[in-house]
Structure of ATP-binding protein:
Amino acid sequence: MATLPPQPKTVRETGLELSMLVELAAKAMYPGAKIPLPVLAGKLRLSIGVMREVLDAMVAEQMAEAGWGGDTDLDLQYHLTAAGKQRAAEYFARCRYAGPAPVTLQAYREVCLRQSTRQADARRIGAAEMAAAFADDHLDVAVCEQLGASLQSSRSLLLYGPSGSGKSTLARKLGQLQQGLVAVPHALLVDQDIIQFYDPLVHLAPSLAARQGENQRSVDARWSLCQRPVVQVGAELSQEMLDLRFDSANGVYQAPPHFMANGGMLVVDDLGRQRVAPADLLNRWTTPLEAGIDQLTADGGHKIGVPFDATLVFVTNYAPQRLLDDASMRRVGYKIQIGALTEQNYRALFRHQCRLLRITHDDAVAEHLLTRLHGPTGRPLLASYPRELLGRICDFASFSGIAPRLTIATLEQAWVSMFAGCVNGFASPSLPPAPYNAYGSDPLLERI
């Protein structure tokens, strides 16, 4: 269980300069007329004690004024003076960031080290949990064991095999099987620059049960407790995305994907289709991962050493030897081929998908799928086919306004829509020509 750092009670304990906190407070106060002390503390994710120091300094500099709104100092309401508004406008011109106060890079390094999956006492998934997690995928036992071993090691992993074999789905599921939680900062301060880090689409909140016993008032609210992140990138990955990106409109840096994956998993889908050579990607990340430190480049060429601790998972349809030479392949921890399912596992998966989609299973139709559709075309029994075919049956049924039914006609209609135009797309002479309504005659044709 990850723990959030303790709440700073003074400006000194935040690790930030008073001038930085005054700037953030002025920008948070700028839009409104008056703002209560607790509300301003909530905006900056700082304690009341820290905000009192900041506001006292702003009042002393005649940037802000306070007025009573109740019986205690917690009811004080603050507003910017004319001089304070002018200063706030100058702050906005330089940097528009007005969110939670950042944490220092050193504080982030210490937290990353404590919550690394490479720590000897880090919680890891066991064989029973692994088997249960992949029970519905009907994987070969040997493949399941290799996936489990790779998670135990936290080493890099290459999943390869034909398109449709379920590699990307397995990679995402591996990410979901990561054990434990991580503390994630909303923003980082490096020198005088702010790096926006927290992303709610990547850093997902844990369940309420996982947060039981956490005292919200005693922890540093500049951090959020999250599930271990799973960051997925695909063919869109470019060289520019591997480094800090300066957002000139807001005056802050955006963290690269592999940096945001710290404490979790980085999935590179469709390896070989990026605008970066596979070997270059591997070289870019492998050495920094071994050292635990990556060098990011700020404007002007200044290098910033940041923690780098993530599990790399590469997914590709290409044969590995087409992408990487032997030296590069040796740097990949596990190489696992994800191929066609056995006939037994394919039948079980098809039945399972019928149950998920609430379609009544029919053994005779399943047999037709194997012997009359897959068999003559030589199409392998890939894991993505059952759900795709059944999903199309649902699509056609929805269009016709009726409940989906698994029949030879509806299955063949789905098969044609999926493979028409592909090599070996048609399998059976019984397949009717398009257009075809598998649920009955076409009412439009009946009227002609």
The first helix runs from residue 11 to 14. The radius of gyration is 28 Å. DSSP finds 18 helices and 17 strands in the chain.
